Amino acid sequence: MTARIIFAITAASTYLLLFLFFIFMNKPSIASWMFLFSPIVILWMAYMIIKFGKYSGVELKPGEEWGYEDKRKEDLGMF
């Protein structure tokens, strides 16, 4: 993972922990504003992961469909 992705995940997680902290400390006005902006934080984190993330899985061959990478086709028993 790149530093940008780690920062985005850390920032969104910290935002969530702060939100929970303000709820626990009975600060509804701050928690309400944070709740309003939480979709923006999550969308920003998802955007950063999609834009800067690196796919490390196996590329599909022509005619193949998506499946489980950790299982062999023979072990699934459905084909």
Keywords:
transmembrane helix, 79 residues, 3 helices, mainly alpha, transmembrane, single chain, membrane
Lay out the secondary structure.
Blueprint: H1 3-24, H2 28-52, H3 73-76
Keywords: Membrane, Transmembrane, Transmembrane helix
Transmembrane segments: 5-24, 30-50
Report how far the terminal alpha carbons are from each other.
35 Å
* Main sheet characteristics: none
Assembly state of the chains shown: single chain
Protein structure class: mainly alpha
The tally of helices reads 3
**Uncertain stretches of 5 or more adjacent residues:** none
Shape: elongated
Beta content comes to: under 5%
Helix content: 55-70%
Tell me the Rg in angstroms.
20 Å
Element-by-element helix/strand order? HHH
- Count of DSSP strands: 0
**Quick check: average pLDDT?**
89
Transmembrane segments: 5-24, 30-50
Keywords: Membrane, Transmembrane, Transmembrane helix
What does this protein look like?
With 79 residues, the chain is mainly α. The chain has a domain at 1-51. The chain contains 3 helices and no strands. The protein has helices at 3-24, 28-52, 73-76. Helix 1 packs antiparallel against helix 2 (28-52). The longest helix is centred in the middle third of the chain and has 25 residues, at 28-52. The radius of gyration is 20 Å and the shape is elongated. The chain crosses the membrane at residues 5-24, 30-50. Keywords: Membrane, Transmembrane, Transmembrane helix.
